[in-house]
Amino acid sequence: MTKNTIGSIFFLAFSCFYFLNVFNIKKMPGNQFEVMSASTFPYYIGLAGIIISLLILIFSFVDKDGERITLNYLKTLDFKTTAYFVAAMLFYGFTIRSLGFIISTIIFLIIGFVLLKEKNMKKILLISVGVSVGFYLLLNNVLGVYIDPGMLVEYFVGEES
Amino acid sequence: MMEGILQGVSTALSSYNIMMVIVGCFAGTFIGMLPGLGPISAIALMIPITYGMEPSSGLILIAGVYYGAIFGGSTSSILINAPGVAGTVASSFDGYPMAKAGHAGKALAIAAYSSFTGGTIAAVFLLIAAPALAQVSLSFQSSDYFALMVLGLTAVAAFAGKGKFLKAAIMTVFGLMLATVGTDSDSGLPRFTFGRLDLIDGISFLLLAMAAFALSEAMMNILDNKEQTQKEIDDLNASIGSLKISRAEIKEMAPTVARSSVLGFFVGVLPGAGATIASFLAYGMERSFASAKEKLKFGKGSVKGLAAPESANNAACSGSFVPLLTLGIPGSGTTAIILGALISYGIQPGPTMYVDNPALFWSVIISMYLGNLVLLVLNLPLIPYIAKLLTLPKKLLLPLIIFFSLIGVYLVTFNNFDIYMMTIFAVIALFIRIIDFPMAPMILGFILGGMMEDNLRRALTISDGSLAFLWERPITFTILIITVILLLMPLLGEVYDKLKKGKA
After folding, report:
1. Which residues pair with residue B190 across a beta bridge?
2. Among candidates A56, A96, A112 on the partner chain, residue whose Cβ is nearest the Cβ of B399
3. Can you give the residue ranges of every domain in chain B?
4. Tens digit of each residue's pLDDT (9 = 90 or more) over B447-487
5. Which residue of B has its CA nearest to A50?
6. B228: Cβ contacts below 8 Å, ≥ 6 apart
7. At what angle do helices B15-33 and B380-389 cross, to 10 degrees?
8. Which residue has the higher pLDDT, B109 or B349?
9. Cβ-contact B52, B357 below 8 angstroms
C-alpha cells in the first residue's frame, strides 16, 4: 500500500468519525433563528475532510508510482523501543503527581537512558538526578514556579510551608 | 510612529531583554543544529519558559530562538550536511562542499555575514512595510479577515510542493477539526468533549505544537534508530579553519546578498511561502544570473551559492512577521506558533496591536535586528564550541528532549491528563510523519480555526445570514479571487499529472 493510501484511509476514518459527532453537538433553544450555530463550522470542515481524503484515496489508486511502505522499511524501524518509550511517557504522567516531580523524573530519565542502551550507570544516575533536582531548584527558586517535589522527598526533607 | 519606535527601542535595549535575545539566539542555535529539530520545535520548547515573563521579553526571546534555530540549521547543513531545518537545505549545496574542502570556517562566516545582511535589509523593509500595512488593515472587517484566513490556509497548501497540495489541505482541515474541540466561544456549548472535563477548554496549542513537533521528532529519532555516523563526528571534530573572508569574496557576494535579501523578504511576506521557498528561489535566481564559468562552481562550494539561500532565508523570517504583526494572521507554521504564544500572553496581534501596544510591536522588530547582531558577534566565534555539543550521543539527548517537552506542557496546567494527551498526539504525529504528510499546515489550521469561525460568524451576523458579503465587499472579493486562483493552480496541475501518469 502506498503512503498516500494509508494516510487517506486514516483521515477518511477520522473525518467520518468527526462528521458523525457533529450531530451530537447540542443545540440552543431558538437555534433555528441563529445565522450560525455551534455545529455549523464543524459540519463544513467535517465534510471538507471527507471530500479531501476521498480525493487523496482515489488519486493514490490512479498514481502507480506513489511511495510505498514496504516490509523492509518497516523492519528498519525500532517499534519495540518506541513502544517502551510511549509506555514510559504514560507512566511518567501517572507517577508525576503520586511520586512527585523529582522521583518520577529520575525514574523516567533512567528508563529513557537504559532504553536507548546507555550502559554507563554512573553517567545515567548523575544526569537523571542532576537534571531533576537542578530543574526543580531552578523552577522553585529562580522562576518562582512551585512544583510538588513528591511525598518521598517530603517524608525525608519535611513539608515546605 | 516615532514615539512608538522610541518606546520599542527602550524596551528592546533594556538589559533584561538584551539578555533574552542572547539566550534565545544561543538556545535556538543549539536546538536548530540538532538534525530534525527545527525552529518550530525550538520555539515550542521555549514557550513554557516565557509564560512568566513580560509579553515583550517573551516575544523577544522567541524571536531570538527563531533566528538562532535558522542559524543553527545552517551550521549543521554546512558542517555535517544534515540540515536541521528545511529552510537551510539549499545552504548545504555549496556550504558542505566548501567545508569538505577545508574551508568550514569561511563557509560559516559567509553564512553568518549573509544572514546578518539579509536580516538587516529585511528589518529595514519591515520597519517600513509593517506600519503601512497595519494602517491599511485598520479598515479591514470580519469578512476580510475571514477571507484572509482562507487565503492563508490555501496558500500553505498551494506552496506545499508538487504532489503535496491535497496532503497539506487535509492536514489543514485536521488542524481546523482539532481547533473545534472544547467549548464553543459563542454559545458556550461543549463540542467533541465526549463528556470529559479535561477537554472543556479545548486542546492547548502548546500541547499540540510540542507533541506534533518536538516530541514526535524526538520519537522519530528513536524509531529511526540511527546514531551519528563516525563521518559526522569526524566532521564535527575537524578544525573549522579561519573565519576570515577576503575582500574579493565580499565583493563577489555583495550583489547576491542584496538581491536575495529583497527576494527573501517578499517571499516571506507571502502567506504559506517562507524560508524554504525563499532559499531555493534565491539559489535558483543566482544560478541563472551567474556566468557560464560561475555556474560550474555551483554545487561545488560557490560563494554565491551559499550567500544566496542564507540571505534569503533570514530575510524571509523577518518578512513572515509582517502578516503576523499587522494582520494577526500567520503565514507559516513557525509564525503560527508565535501567534499562539502571543494569544496566550493575552495579546491579539493585528492592526490594533500597532496602536495599542506600540512598545511591544516595535521592540519585536528592533530585537530582530539585535538578534542578527548577536548571531554575528557572539555566535559565530563560538560555533566551533557549540558544534562540539552536537557530538553528544543521541541516547543522552533524546530522553532529555522528551522530558523537557512533557514537563513544559505539564507546568502550564499541572494536569497529568495533558501528559497522556500529548503522548497520544505524539504517536499520531509519528504515524503522520511515517506516511509523509506535512505537519506545519495542521498547526496553522489549528491556530486559525477559532479566529476563522469567529470572523465568519461576525460577518454572517452583520450581513444577516447572507453569504453576499463574499462578493459585495471589494476587499473580501479580491482576496477570495486570489484564493481561488491559488487553489486551482496546483489542484488542476495535480489532477492533470495524476491522470497523465494513470494513462501512461
Report:
1. B183
2. A112
3. 2-503
4. 888 889 988 998 888 888 888 888 888 888 998 998 888 88
5. B170
6. B390, B391, B393, B394
7. 50
8. B109
9. no
